[in-house]
C-alpha cells in the first residue's frame, strides 16, 4: 500500500500540504510564514542577509534609520516588541 513511486509521493506531499494550508487560520498562516522567513534569514551569512534587507527596502537611508532604531532598542532596559504580527481571525 505504501509502495509509492516518486511522482505519487510528490502528489501525496502536495495534497497533504494543500489540506494543511486549507485548515490553517489566517493567524496560523501568518505565524508560520513569519517563522519560516526568520529561519531562512537566520541561516544566511551576515553579508547575504544584509543584501536581502537592502533589496527589500531599496532605500539605503531608510535601512540605516531602521538599523539605528534597532541599535537603540537593543540598548534599552525596558523592551517591547518592535513589531507584533497580527492577523484578523478567519
Walk me through the structure.
By secondary structure, the protein is mainly α. The chain has one domain. The chain has helices at 6-22, 26-43, 46-57, 60-75. The longest helix is centred in the middle third of the chain and has 18 residues, at 26-43. The model has no long low-confidence stretch (mean pLDDT 88).
Short description:
This protein is mainly α and 90 residues long.
What order do the helices and strands come in, and which of them pair?
Layout: H1 6-22, H2 26-43, H3 46-57, H4 60-75
Helices, by number, come to 4
Low-pLDDT segments, ≥5 res = none
Mean pLDDT: 88
- Helix content range: over 70%
Q: How many strands, what sense, and barrel or not for the largest sheet?
A: none
Provide the number of structural domains: 1
Topology as H/E string? Answer: HHHH
Briefly note the structural class of the backbone.
Answer: mainly alpha
**Which outline best applies?**
elongated
The fraction of residues assigned to DSSP E strands is under 5%
Estimated radius of gyration:
19 Å
Q: Kindly, what is the distance between the CA atoms of the first and last residues, rounded to a whole number of angstroms? A: 37 Å
Q: How many strands in all?
A: 0
Keywords for this structure?
single chain; mainly alpha; 4 helices
Amino acid at each position: 500500500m505504501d509502495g509509492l513511486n516518486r511522482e505519487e509521493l510528490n502528489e501525496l506531499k502536495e495534497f497533504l500540504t494543500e489540506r494543511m494550508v486549507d485548515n490553517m487560520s489566517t493567524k496560523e498562516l501568518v505565524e508560520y510564514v513569519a517563522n519560516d522567513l526568520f529561519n531562512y534569514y537566520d541561516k544566511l551569512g551576515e553579508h547575504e542577509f544584509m543584501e536581502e534587507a537592502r533589496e527589500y527596502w531599496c532605500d539605503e537611508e531608510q535601512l540605516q534609520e531602521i538599523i539605528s532604531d534597532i541599535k537603540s532598542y537593543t540598548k534599552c532596559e525596558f523592551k517591547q516588541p518592535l513589531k507584533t504580527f497580527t492577523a484578523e481571525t478567519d
